[in-house]
Structure formats: structure tokens, C-alpha cells
Amino acid sequence: MSNASDPKEDVGPVVSGERIDSVDVLRGVACLGILLMNIIAFALPVATYYNPSVMGLENPANLWAYIVNWLFFEGSMRTVFSMLFGAGVVLITSRAENRGAGVESADIYLRRNMLLMAFGLVDAYLFLWYSDILYLYGLAGLFLFVFRRLMPRTLFLLGVVMVIFMGIINLSANAELAAVMSQVEAAQQAGSEVTAEQLEAIGYYEALQAEYAPGADQVAAEVAIRQSGFIEQFHFIAPIVVAFQSVFTYTYAIWDVLTMMLIGMALFKWGVFDARKSHGFYWAMVVIGYGVGVPVNWYEIRMAIDSGFSFEWVGLNYIKTYQIGRLGTAAGHIGLVMLFCKSGGLGFISRSLGAVGRMALTNYLSHSVICLFLFTGVGLAWFGQLERYQLYYVVAAIWAFQLIASPLWLRYFRFGPVEWLWRSLTYGAWQPMRAVRRQ
């Protein structure tokens, strides 16, 4: 690898003066916010993410932790994160092309995304984070390059069409399964013979139900494995990672993130993320976004609670409104953060959030490392030991650490450590690490 004086420096990483502060702040909010959901999967059995009745729901504080999380943050933080990734696609490629990179811009872009996929594999298999999104983002990013020059209206419409398409696919799949199960129930009540197709549907339904509501013995076994050594956990986690990165990726996850990335590309081109729209525009995002998203999310929560967190509702029906709820809430978050950036107040918080955003890859991976140590047998083995609401004390501590450590690090260095490695490998030149100090 060459040094940083290589000619490729002309199309090298974004430097401080070229950054968009509001984008960094929004990315920092999303990076911290996504831990609110991920902490459940880091610290509790897999099924508890969607089904809090699996463990500890008898404590009202745990129920309220679930309600607040689902009402304001579930899906919406991932949406903002995905939108900002789409914005980054436009920013990076247009910057390289404007500097005359030509075909080299494609080379840089593809290498950057393939490296992100590699970081995702490290996160999943070495840090044992089965719900890693870096591999998925890198994979989705490979498709986005061809969309980079489309008009924002076209990008936005593509995203909206994909949201509708996802909804139709989810509804049709669930409706088909529900219809088959109704036929099975009717056949059994009538004493008729169950067909081979219906038997297959029964097996699939029961497998999903068992995964959603595991028995006490299964939960205890999972807790014991997660409190054990690395090898035992690896054998448990690896099949989940494989399933996530294969069937789940191509049937749902890739469409989930591509949709929001396309919308994010449009919003960036419209100038939404750089806080240059009017106050009225952003207040409209807040009022309309939360006005749509929060009631939809509350409806999902209410139905889940009223059904006793039944598989029939949470497993099959909440998805009918999920996209609407998370998109609306995400729009509200974006509008609120942009208003905060435009206000210019609380500059120290803005600078800290911006620093977290500039080091988002390092901070995201550090969530996995910290939680690996705290919750698994690799470290303190707190897995399954804390109540759901108590996990947010851990979240607050991690937030405080990153909000303090990130600006301190960037006072002396140009990049976060993982960002430095990512950029060095992407551009084929070791990037200067030390920050240039003003005299």
C-alpha cells in the first residue's frame, strides 16, 4: 500500500472542512439511537425482541420500556441510518466524479462497500453480533451506484413504490399462511383428511410459533449458552447469522434497507439533511411525521398487548402498518434534529453528536465489543441477568462514554480508528491519522 502522497489523494476521504455538520449530527443520533433496540438482542434471548412476554413482563417497568421503545424508536432509527447511507452514496460518488476520478470513482465505491461487508462479517462471527447491518449495507450499496444520478423525484418515487411493494408482499404472504391454517382448522373440525400441503403449512407455522414463544427450558438453554465460552456461543450464533444473511436478506432485509437508502438519496439531493430548508419545512416534518407515525406505532403496541403478545398478532399482523409507522416517526426525528442544528444552541451537544456521527462505524462496532464483554461468557456473562428496563442504564453509560470519547479522539486524530482503516484500504494509501492542529 502506498503512502498518503499518492495521486489518489485527489479523490481521497472527505476532510473536516468538507463535512456537513448536520449530517454528522443526525448520523450520531441514529448511531446512538439504534442501540436502544439492539441492546435487547445483545442481552436477552432472541425471542424477547418482539415478544417481551418471554422474559420479565410481570415487571411493569419492563412493559413500559417496551412501549416507549416501540413507540418512538423501533424501525425509525434503522430508517434514518439507512437514509444517511443513501445520502453518503450521493456525496461520495459525486465528490469523486467532480474531481475527475472517472472510472476510478466506481473502483473506489465498490471497494468501499466490499470492505464494509468484510467488517460486517467480523462483527457477526468474531464479535458474535447476529443482527449486524454492515454486511447488509455493503451488499445493498453495490446496487445503489447505478441510481446515483437519478433526479431526486425519481429516487423518492422508487422508494415509495418499493415500500408499497414490500407491504403487498408481506400482506399476501401472511394472508396465504393464515388462509391455509384456517382451512386446516376447518378440515380438522370436520374430520377431513389433511393434505400434504396443509401438513407442510402446519409444520412451518408451528416452527415460527416455537421460535416466537420458546418454552422455559429453551430460554434457559439459550441463556446458558450465551454465558459460556466463545466456541459454544459461536456454534449457537453462526446458524442465525447464516439464516439472516441468506434467506432473510433476500426475502426482506435487502428491500427494507434499499427502500430507505433510495429515499435518503432523494432527501439529500433536495437539501433536507444539510439543514438548509426553512423552519416551517422541518416543523411540518415533525408534526406530520410524528402525527402519522406515533399513532400507528401506538396501535401496534395496543393490539400486541391486548392479544397477550400472541403470535397471531405480533408474528403475522403488525407488519401491515409497520412501514407507515417507522417512516412517519423517522421523518419526525429528522425534522427535530434539523431544527436543533438550525437553532445553533447547545453547541457542545451538537459537537459531541457530530463527533459520534463522524466515528459512526467505530462506535457501531464498539457496541458489539462492549456488549460481548458485558453480556456473554467472554466477559461478565450478564446475559439474561438484567431486567429489560435495566438495560437502558447500560445504554446510557455507553452513550455517555461515546459522547465524551468521540470528540476527545477527534481532537487529536482525523478519523476514528476503524474509519481510518476503512479509508486507507479503500483508497489504497495509508491516510494521515494525526489531526492538523491550528496554531
Mean pLDDT: 88
Q: Give the topology string: H per helix, E per strand.
A: HHHHHHHHHHHHHHHH
Number of helices: 16
Radius of gyration: 23 Å
Q: Helix amount, in percent?
A: over 70%
**What is the general shape?**
globular
What composes the largest sheet?
none
Poorly predicted residue ranges: 2-10
The N- and C-terminal alpha carbons lie at a distance of 32 Å
Say how many strands there are. 0
Q: What structural class do you assign from the helix and strand content?
A: mainly alpha
* Strand coverage percent: under 5%
In short:
With about 450 residues, this protein is mostly helical. The chain is built from 16 helices and no strands. It starts with 20 loop residues before the first helix and ends in a 12-residue tail after the last helix.
List keywords for this structure.
mainly alpha, disordered N terminus, 0% strand, globular, 439 residues, single chain, 16 helices
Characterization of the model:
By secondary structure, the protein is mostly helical. It has one domain (7-427). Helices cover 72% and strands 0% of the residues. It is built from 16 helices and no strands.
